[in-house]
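Lab notebook, bench 4. We co-purified these components, and the gel suggests they stay together. Before we commit to crystallization screens, I want a quick structural picture of the whole thing.
Request: model the full complex, all chains together.
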Amino acid sequence: MHRKTPLITDVAKRAGVSTATVSRVANSPELVSPATAQRVRQAMQQLGYRPNGFAKALITRSSRVLGIVLPDFFGDFYSELLRAADTAARDAGYHLVVSSDARAGSEDVASSLPLNFLDGLIAFISFPDPSLLESVVGLSNSVVLIDSGEHTHDVDRIRIDNASGARSATEHLLAQVPASRCYHVGGPSSNFDAVERATAFAATLSEHGASPASNQIEHGEFSAAWGYAWAMQALEAQPSAPVAVFAANDEIAFGILQAASVLGIAVPERLKLVGFDGARLSTITMPELSTVQVPLDEIGARAISLCIERIRAPQSPYRAVTASTRLIVRSSSR
Amino acid sequence: MHRKTPLITDVAKRAGVSTATVSRVANSPELVSPATAQRVRQAMQQLGYRPNGFAKALITRSSRVLGIVLPDFFGDFYSELLRAADTAARDAGYHLVVSSDARAGSEDVASSLPLNFLDGLIAFISFPDPSLLESVVGLSNSVVLIDSGEHTHDVDRIRIDNASGARSATEHLLAQVPASRCYHVGGPSSNFDAVERATAFAATLSEHGASPASNQIEHGEFSAAWGYAWAMQALEAQPSAPVAVFAANDEIAFGILQAASVLGIAVPERLKLVGFDGARLSTITMPELSTVQVPLDEIGARAISLCIERIRAPQSPYRAVTASTRLIVRSSSR
DNA sequence: TCCCCCGGTGTAAAGGATTACACTACACTG
DNA sequence: CAGTGTAGTGTAATCCTTTACACCGGGGGA
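Here is the predicted assembly.
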């Protein structure tokens, strides 16, 4: 009555060959004579045969599926990263399983991915809790960490060069506005990137002989709401002299832009604004947002290639890659 | 030298039981005496045992992994949908593999997912090419289609009630502005949702005795750039009397909002604007955007539950669910 | 006392592919 | 003509778990 899904033996029977030959047609055609291959392929077609992935993976010890853990699904930042990773993975014949709760404990990371099916794991964890990192690293043989700060573990890593981008942005602002009217609207103080960006901002000010007042650097979250809230209370009180703000990411900058519009503060005339990330959002704000570009596509692709290379050569030395950042000046700050 | 990963037999040996008992401890603990279970668990712990997913899936015929195909990774719309689906899946003990090129052919859909590992498939395909749909349906035993228009195939489906939302929005605008100054800025004419929304707009105008001029409904794409471009050329020429615009999604509306700001057209005084989707974007624009809310979380969760129910009961009758939409009036249109 | 039932456990048979190894037939070499 | 290499194919072991079925011992009913 109900047709069972065809097995390799069915194909073999139909084509008048052994299962080994059928398998070879699928996996190493060069070992099979063209005539036989043709017959086998036809049999596959007619039966609608598709190899059972589990059986294949069981003996092959490989699923060609990678897991990727991101802090969030939302926002252009992760979308772009994910897209790049997905493309790179596909080009290499791999698939991606995504998960989004990196800020939860590692048990969650573990339970949020079908770990038993993965050939490798890429984790973007910006809350550098050493024990969390340690356990994530233990989750798979081939782990790549993105942007997880310092660590003691042997593992492949990709770092974002927050400091140099933040420096460029700050220098750029300092060239236009005195240090005392330069502000940094930061991300969460528990977030690795946020801290690095804030630190670089402070350091750059210091190098210019200014020691930033406490209200010149404030931490919040990576959201437009935080940027808006900050701006509403900080900018309202400002005299008419121009102010410069370096936001820890584009979302925050976007919020600040909205507040400026409400407050009637002209950008860039009275407010010089620079964001961070260089994601899509920065190109659709009005005015267009100056930003520090993070090479998301490069990071995504590199993460995949590091992971795949480790799968191929488990014993090779661990590598650390730094993704460089670059200031892009647009109309919000000139 | 190098420790092999522990097998179920290792655990069994160490705990002094058979592999069957070990397996039972993991899968149906109620069959095992507490004392034995305790010993086995301890052995698992000590060895760091994790069952081989492939072997398990092979015999179980189930991976508890679902695939989901979306048109895109970008934008709040899909992010929210994905998040809801992911949450629902996780709650049900399933994992999600995502893929993003639904507008490509079905071969691409097939190659973009590790089909051989999936228990089911959820596909959001808004370009209702019948043969594409047909082949996607054939990709897995348990397929759920989201919003793929009419179709002849037996398959579970979720539809977005575009028409009723679009009607409400249009009525809302007609209550404030004469029909001759109501515009619809549509999405791609090949997109199912876009067409339904445009059609409902036109129908509502007709019901009010107005037959929309050709320039009152234009198709473009679901992007801020398109909305901006449309507004720059359409709104510039407008007299000072207020105009109403129903955008086919929030992104487009966002672009229109930007253009209005550039053109110095006050919203909502001179331009009444309503979007569609009700994603996050609509809440962070200035002014806040009236929109037709699509219950993304409900859709995501329902898609998962339909899929899982089909897996459980492959022979049950196919179902079609309609997700209702609802107008949310905010400051951009009142 | 005998039997039945049942909780707890073990044995061994799947599950469906890949691939090491063995083999055949034929073409060449010397 | 014996010997060797090679292209093409088949046989059977293997990957690691789950689970149907068998078994065993003891408590309770008749």
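The longest strand of chain A covers residues 271-277. Worth comparing against the SEC data before the next meeting. The radius of gyration of chain A is 26 Å.
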